[in-house]
Amino acid sequence: MPYREYTNLDFDVPEPGILRIQFNNPKSLNSVNAGQHSELARIWGDIDRDPEVKVVIVTGAGEAFSSGGDFGIIEEMAGDFESRILTMREARDICYGVVNCSKPIVSAMTGPAVGAGLAVGLLADVSIATPSTKIVDGHTRLGVAAGDHGVLIWPLLCGMAKAKYHLMTCEPVSGEEAERMGLVSLCVPEEELQDRALAVARKLASLSQSAVRWTKYALNGWLRAAGPIFDVSVAYETIGFGGPDVHEGVASLREKRRPSFSGPADS
After folding, report:
1. Is 188 part of a structural domain of the chain?
2. In this structure, what DSSP letter does residue 32 have?
3. Domain extent at residue 98
């Protein structure tokens, strides 16, 4: 296993040619800390260069896929310029890494699917949810612009009207609704999730690898073309982490209350 240096992600090989990555912090619903965020930014290049890997499965331990960035990484970004810039670069690397990785990626999502984990989940080439999956882009609730992946992929998957509604209001999307509106590839019963993800990965691994990879590369030209739009969204998100609203956003989440934002309205 050539991934021993990664200490914030779990790996196994359920079948030859199939690498499974697991977010494994179930006590916090697989929240993403700074170390995991950094590893998610680096892993795709290593996978791309690994001749033993044909397909990747990404999933979460327990009853969640990923609940997004933990309070530690958010508060560090809000209080430190260098942390904001580092996280901005990593956010770009996560998304572009998934898009440009030649190996097909399958996501298996259940429970909360938020933040950097959701970026991987929705940018995956085949995304599989369950009825209990709760997809949320919570950026505006936190007091920052929808960055990381939302502006890049949501309009292409579910259309501009739905993308604007969910990215601007933070309204959750269930797995069933996500399949209906085209946000995910499939929605399957909870007990079938892992088997279905493995079956899809197995099929992809059995096909012509050059044909599958070139098809992925060609299709993802749509996402690369949207790169400048994505870069702007990440930049605006990063600016927001230096503003006053994010502090109220974090405080309201900690205190489980509605936020009362007072930042500038003439942005």
Report:
1. yes
2. B
3. 10-193+205-212
* 261, 248 Cβ separation under 8 angstroms: yes
**Contact status, residue 22 vs residue 9, Cβ threshold 8 Å:** yes
| Helix ranges restricted to H, the chain | 34-49, 71-79, 81-100, 115-123, 139-142, 150-158, 160-169, 175-180, 193-206, 209-219, 221-225, 227-240, 245-255
Q: Which of 219, 237, 235, 121 is nearest to 173 (CA)?
A: 121
Name the maximum alpha-carbon separation found in the chain.
Answer: 55
Give the tens place of pLDDT for each residue, 101-137.
999 999 999 999 999 999 999 999 999 999 999 999 9
Give the span between the Cα atoms of 22 and 43, in whole angstroms: 12
Give dist(CA 137, CA 93) in Å, integer.
19
Specify if 240 maps to a domain.
no
Amino acid in position 150: G
Q: How remote is the C-alpha of 189 from its chain's centroid? A: 21
Total domains in the fold of the chain? 1
- Is 219 part of a structural domain of the chain? no
Q: If you write DSSP's letter for every residue of 59-85 in order, what string do you get?
A: EESTT-SEE-B-HHHHHHHHH-HHHHH
- Chain centre to alpha carbon of residue 209: 25
The answer to the question of residue 77 being in a domain is yes
22 has which bridge partners?
10, 59
Per-residue pLDDT band for 1 (boundaries 50, 70, 90) equals low
CB 74 within 8 A of CB 39: no
Confirm whether pTM is higher than 0.70.
yes
